[in-house]
Amino acid sequence: MSFFQLGSKKYKKATDWVKEHSFGIESLTECNGDDFKFLEKVLKNKRVVWLGENGHGIAEHSLLKTKIIHFLYHQMGFKVIAFESGLGESYSSNYVKETLSVKELMDKSIFSLWKSEETYPLFELIRQNDDLNLIGFDMQPSVKKSSIAVFINQLNINFPSEFIRSIHKVEKTAIFWYEQLGVYKASRKKVPKEILNKYLKAKKEQEKLIIHLQTMLKYLKREFERNELSKEYAVLLKILENRQLFFNHLAARSKDYLKIRDQVMAKNLEWICNELYPNEKIIVWAHNSHIYKNVTSSYKPMGSLMSPKLERQSYYLGLFMYQGEVAFDKKVTQKLVKPPKNSLEDYMNHNPAPVSFFDLSKISLNRVNKWISRSTVILESGMMQAFIIPRKQLDGIFFVKEVSPPHYL
């Protein structure tokens, strides 16, 4: 047998093994809770489910995650959704969601990248159910006008009149500079000295204001406790802490900023799981690149910064795709690159179903499935080649054969 024939035989065995060990879903648009029953066994005893996505502009990934969350909420008792969006913006929206339309709820909580027809049913679910809570774990501001001030006004606390005015000023300033400096970060250009100096001046002013707000808040701690609002007190302190971190690092070099952002998001998520909602099951919504665990390089995503205890309680689920088009920043659509042979996407594509699931957590290794424990090619955002060790970085994979841009609202 020639080397070529031997290689072809090994490849066929590997792809046949994937087909045999993965679940198929025949229609993403028509599937319902019963189609995700296999997750009950897979996620048994798991408290945190991480739902990744291979890009923020993929309609089918958002729709699939929305349907998975419906299942996790109705069938498995998951009642907290932690989004890759502003911590305070998302949390405060829980207190006003009954007064908002579904679109308004999205407007006041998450980044607009996810405001689409595909995520609409998810926010409809959040709005209709008081026991389903939304929170963010990002230090970045995610909306132009949040409900934080309205949330504070609803608390039965005798705040000084300047407290809410000052909070509003901090939020407004954060949004302004996030947009101003974001233009240069997105294009990887150096911030002009004149603009940078203006930012540094604003940063000093905001630091003083935040310290003053923290002092006022600590002075009111006993009043919060008397009114059984300890959780709300802790959230307000965390909101101010995140704004401090945001202002301190916004002007850093892009690589440094991204590294710090993942570190802050990891700490926020640990706090959400261990202190804010210690007795709840939690769903994490983020990009694949944030959820990878066991990454040992100098840049560690948030998934690799979790405590060993929380990692043991977690199931890391990456979402991948094969062909079609995706959107970048809601504006530009681009056709996906064809995944190379022996890539993760190539192996997964051999399940004939349009959507498939592959559990990596309980697989016994053998000669046929070596690729799951070796450095394997993936296409980040369907474009750029990168490498992961699938079984080391993830517990499971959802795969969609054909994708398209979201239908933005």
Automatic annotation (TrEMBL):
CDD domains reported for this sequence: Ere-like
Report TM segments. Answer: none
Q: Which InterPro entries match?
A: Emycin_Estase, Hydrolase/PRTase-associated
Q: Which GO terms describe its biological process?
A: response to antibiotic
Q: Which domain of life is it from?
A: Bacteria
Please name the PANTHER family in this protein's record: ESTERASE, PUTATIVE (AFU_ORTHOLOGUE AFUA_1G05850)-RELATED (PTHR31299)
The protein in question is named: Erythromycin esterase
